[in-house]
């Protein structure tokens, strides 16, 4: 980025994502989509009819995102059941299955679902390319943002016991290469703003997580470097005009969570070891720790999106409190490298969080209004 372009973005607002006011991606599924998905499951409508309903509802929510003032628009992940499994199952060598039990969140469990690696992982084509192309076709002058799970999620949530991989380094390499092809395919489809969603990093944030790492048969330092290498290999050589960010999450299902702990134990790797353009980070409550780990932000071209507005409940945060927290974060990272968003999406799975659609839009308006005050 040229110095003159950088100055223009600082004085007039960012021209590329992440934007000063941004969003993570998923939105509450609308009633027409929920009804149509149920009808499709019951054999009452065809896949084509379901897609027609999804198309109309995605058009509606994209217009709503434009109306409230967002610069980046998403399809709300309206065609997905899960934020991660739906994409990962579309990779070569990966299959979905009905698991023995769901994923345990704080006081609630998801429906049972799992993925397993059955052959060498690769990427040849994917139905979400068509999903992105539809979003691109209706985005207009706004920036269409595509979200997919991080390559680390295949290791973190995938069953590898029956896979052809005896060497985990080979597995991580193949996954990275598959993602490199996927990223190129989305770029060729027109995508210029891509986000990798990743809950795997949360295992480094607590002692409970470290126990989970050891249960994988790995050591924290080794796995942390492996995660970083996989991401960096996947995005290496990406086109200059493609922005790739990552959202780090501690779990989001029906307004609850899985992990807790600050970024400290993995901060140096996350903030100074990943060749990303931006990081979307949870900072909405005490589970996420303080801003001190931001001191490891060394690059001037890395954007940090502060997830200070919760997507888990509808009550609006006091804007002065949010502005004070942004000011506090700016003690560790330059204000011109900071942005604002909700801490996560509103519906990481089709069930969605426990708030209304209107509360969701009010949350996003809240982000925009606060950002406009901070970055005038």
Automatic annotation (TrEMBL):
GO terms for molecular function: 5-methyltetrahydropteroyltriglutamate-homocysteine S-methyltransferase activity. Pfam families: Meth_synt_2. Residues 23-351 form the Cobalamin-independent methionine synthase MetE C-terminal/archaeal domain. It comes from the Bacteria. GO terms for biological process: methylation. Residues 1-13 have a biased composition (Polar residues). Keywords: Methyltransferase, Transferase. Residues 1-20 are annotated as: Disordered. It is an enzyme of class 2 (transferase). InterPro entries: Met_Synth_C/arc (IPR002629), UROD/MetE-like_sf (IPR038071). Its EC number is 2.1.1.14. PANTHER family: METHIONINE SYNTHASE. This is 5-methyltetrahydropteroyltriglutamate--homocysteine S-methyltransferase. It comes from Bacillus sonorensis.
């Amino acid at each position: 980025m040229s110095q003159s372009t950088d100055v223009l973005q600082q004085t007039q607002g960012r021209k590329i994502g992440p934007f000063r006011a941004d969003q993570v991606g998923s939105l509450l599924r609308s009633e027409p989509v929920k009804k149509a998905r149920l009808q499709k499951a019951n054999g009452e409508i065809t896949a084509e009819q379901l897609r027609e309903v999804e198309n109309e509802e995605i058009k509606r929510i994209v217009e709503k995102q434009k109306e409230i003032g967002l610069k980046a628009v998403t399809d709300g992940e309206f065609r997905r059941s899960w934020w991660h499994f739906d994409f990962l199952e579309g990779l070569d060598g990966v299959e979905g299955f009905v698991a023995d039990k769901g994923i345990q969140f704080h006081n609630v469990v998801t429906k049972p679902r799992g993925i397993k690696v059955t052959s060498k992982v690769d990427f040849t084509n994917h139905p979400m390319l068509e999903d992105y192309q539809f979003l691109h076709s209706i985005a207009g002058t706004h920036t269409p943002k595509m979200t997919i799970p991080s390559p680390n999620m295949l290791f973190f949530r995938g069953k590898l016991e029956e896979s052809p991989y005896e060497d985990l380094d080979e597995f991580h390499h193949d996954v990275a290469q598959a993602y490199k092809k996927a990223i190129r395919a989305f770029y060729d489809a027109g995508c210029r703003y891509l986000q990798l969603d990743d809950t795997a990093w949360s295992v480094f944030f607590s002692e409970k997580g470290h126990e989970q790492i050891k249960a994988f048969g790995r050591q924290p330092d080794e796995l942390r470097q492996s995660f970083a290498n996989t991401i960096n290999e996947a995005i290496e050589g990406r086109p200059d005009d493609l922005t790739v960010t990552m959202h780090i999450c501690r779990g989001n299902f029906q307004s609850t969570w899985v992990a807790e702990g600050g970024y400290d134990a993995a901060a140096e790797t996350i903030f100074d070891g990943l060749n990303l353009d931006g990081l979307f980070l949870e900072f909405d409550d005490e589970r996420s720790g303080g801003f001190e780990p931001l001191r490891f932000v060394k690059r001037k071209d890395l954007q940090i999106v502060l997830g200070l507005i919760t997507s888990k409940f509808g009550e609006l945060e006091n804007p002065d409190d949010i502005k004070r927290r942004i000011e506090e974060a700016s003690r560790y990272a330059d204000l011109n490298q900071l942005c604002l968003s909700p801490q996560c999406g509103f519906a990481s799975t089709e069930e969605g969080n426990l708030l209304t659609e209107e509360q969701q839009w009010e949350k996003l308006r809240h982000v925009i209004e606060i950002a406009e005050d901070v970055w005038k």
